[in-house]
Design goal:
The chain is 39% helix and 18% strand. With 374 residues, it is of the alpha/beta class.
């Protein structure tokens, strides 16, 4: 494997425990019957993108999102971009991959630190001991920094959810006062069980930190393919995109998520700059971190234009001396929301939870968090 890079670093060493998860929603999944073996988590769906290039779309696990994984089969082995969320989901991915090829996985790329993209590293490394895991330097540092604390956030969110569920079960009514039917009670109890199972599975997970990092670009000439890795922050401080110039395929990680971007805790100015870089690549297939592959630049352009429009409105609000709360009221998101959701109620809720927080992110970025003192 030839490597051309600036500021290349290699990190041999042991795995660190990473009991963390990106829990964006908690919803019931079909359980097994009481006393019966647990129903396996659902298997991913395969999409053939080009000869030897495959997208795997994994269903949510107990309401927790699972990132896309992409397998690139080379002349000698397989490169995998993102390893899903849990050991079980990574095992399902590996099982599907083995129906395509018997070649070993020798390279994994983590697009960013969130565990729905990196949680399967250990499973791949166990199956393939010579595995190299590549990420940006920032992603490796974020994995280390969050390894022992993020689980506390997860446990807090689960406790809040469970408290609400138990409150509804005790009162016999939903949060909006509607009486619970017998099926509603069954579903709520199933949800409690699935959440407990998910947390148990995740706490049993151990992560392997990346063994290779880079700061800017890293090009692999590997197994007859050219793979260009680009460190482009935005969704997180350490995002990596992968571009296959011969195939004109671009893998973005969560710099793009379809159908609604994930903007909470993002870095908006860097994100806009990163999307501008991606928009200049000659890509006929763009695979987001979540959702279906896109076969033109339309969705990328929509996300880029939407972020720019919100940034312009926030800066105008700052010019008028508005506080954060005033700015949140002044920024008009209605037309942007419709562009993503087409007024679908479920997508509207996703937009309000996942995109709308970017107003605060842009405000804080422009004022270095001055809103804390307002």
């Amino acid at each position: 494997m030839e490597i051309c890079t600036a500021d290349f670093r290699h990190f041999p060493g042991p795995a660190n425990i990473f009991t963390a998860v990106l829990a964006l929603a908690l919803a019931a999944s079909p359980p097994g019957a009481a006393g019966a073996p647990e129903t396996p988590w659902a298997t991913p769906t395969r999409v053939d993108l080009a000869p030897g290039v495959f997208q795997f779309i994994s269903p949510d696990v107990a309401g927790n999102v699972v990132g896309n994984s992409i397998a690139i089969v080379t002349d000698s082995d397989v490169v995998v971009f993102d390893t899903t969320l849990l050991p079980a989901t990574a095992t399902s991915l590996l099982n599907e991959l083995r129906t395509i090829t018997s070649k070993p996985v020798r390279v994994v790329v983590n697009s960013h630190w969130h565990p729905d993209h990196s949680g399967g590293n250990e499973t791949f490394a166990t199956s393939f001991p010579d595995l190299e895991i590549i990420s940006s330097l920032q992603t490796r540092q974020l994995m280390e920094g969050t390894a022992k604390v993020y689980v506390k956030t997860l446990e807090f969110e689960l406790a809040q959810t469970n408290q609400e569920i138990n409150k509804e079960l005790k009162s016999g009514k939903t949060s909006d006062g509607k009486p619970l039917a017998a099926k509603d009670r069954e579903d709520l109890r199933a949800q409690l069980g699935m959440e407990d199972r998910f947390l148990k599975d995740f706490k049993a997970e151990h992560i392997l930190l990346p063994t290779v990092t880079f700061d800017d670009t890293l090009t692999l000439y590997h197994g007859g393919r050219e793979l260009r890795l680009l460190a482009l922050p935005g969704h997180t401080a350490g995002d990596v995109a992968l571009y296959l110039p011969a195939e004109k395929i671009l893998l973005t990680g969560d710099l793009l998520a379809y159908p609604v971007p994930f903007c909470a805790d993002s870095h908006p100015s860097a994100w806009i700059a990163s999307l501008e870089v991606l928009s200049r690549l000659d890509a006929s297939t763009i695979v987001p971190g979540h959702g279906a592959a896109q076969h033109d630049h339309q969705y990328l352009t929509l996300v880029l234009n939407s972020l720019q429009a919100v940034r312009n409105q926030v800066h105008q609000a700052l010019d008028r001396g508005l506080t954060l709360s005033e700015t949140q009221k002044a920024v008009h998101l209605e037309s942007i929301r419709r562009s993503f959701t087409h007024d679908d109620p479920d997508l509207n809720a996703q937009f309000d939870g996942n995109f709308a927080p970017v107003v605060r992110q842009i405000y804080d970025e422009a004022t270095e968090g001055l809103e804390q003192y307002q």
